[in-house]
Amino acid sequence: MTDKCPSVTAWRVARHRAKHQLLENGIVFSDPLAIPVLGEDAEFLKAEEERPGEKNFRLFMAIRSRIAEDKLATAVQRGVRQAIIMGGGVDTLGLRNPHKNSGLTVFEVDRPLMQNWKRRHLARTGLKVPESFTFVPVDFERDSLSACLMKAGFDSTKPAFFSWLGVVPYLTRESIENTLRFVASIPGSEIVFDYGEPIENYEGQHRRLMEERGGFVASVGEPWLSRFNPAEIHAILLKAGFNNVTDYDRNGISSYFGWPAKSPFGNSL
């Protein structure tokens, strides 16, 4: 790439989504644009040497995307017509919009630098931005999310679905709490997001991999800023105004997908 993605982590996540289509045939999360959006050769991706812990991480990426899009489908069934992808990176939901015929509008929120690059990148790959997709440049730490969304056409009087994947660990606690309060203030809305637990909550190889990953993201200028224990994030959500909270741990994920207690992917989850 001569015009590199300004977020190393966003690009790596996109490549994990693409490799899931190639190596596991998209068994958890099927995304027909995951490979085209990269603009890379699929065989090159497939031939790459797998690093320790990569399969685990790749499947986690697929699982969180699948759960988010399942929840979005349910939201659309109950009448939601606004979806907000926060920290969209190289995500393809806005391009695919599987609920376009139901009238779903997708707002993708990300840093201005990232969105400017994505527009250029999509033009290079030949992927078209549908009319149902709106870019919303926002810096979560500095800008008013509500003001930026409403300027882009978002209607805060109508319910909305928010997807916030792979973003929370990179934000300050204040920014996270402000965002959650805004989402909770919109009647009939819901949010799906993931968060990281403190490193000391992990053991053995999993802990070593998390420490290595933490060191890597810091080295590329995208350090983790916030990590939470489950009880802590639950309390934050209740305080923000949410009254129905579901937190999927490993067993919860297995139950969600109808897998046995030991996932079919072994220790990948």
TrEMBL record:
**EC annotation from Swiss-Prot or TrEMBL:** 2.1.1.-
Keywords attached to this entry:
Methyltransferase, S-adenosyl-L-methionine, Transferase
Matching entries from InterPro entries are given as: Ppm1/Ppm2/Tcmp, SAM-dependent_MTases_sf, SAM_mthyl_Trfase_ML2640-like
In the record, what terms sit under GO molecular function? Answer: methyltransferase activity
Q: Coiled-coil regions in this chain? A: none
Q: Which Gene3D superfamilies match?
A: Vaccinia Virus protein VP39
The GO biological-process annotations, alphabetized, read as: methylation
Please give the family membership noted in the entry.
Answer: Belongs to the UPF0677 family.
**Protein purpose:** Exhibits S-adenosyl-L-methionine-dependent methyltransferase activity.
Q: What is this protein called?
A: S-adenosyl-L-methionine-dependent methyltransferase
- Species: Acetobacter malorum
Q: What is the lineage of its organism?
A: Bacteria, Pseudomonadati, Pseudomonadota, Alphaproteobacteria, Acetobacterales
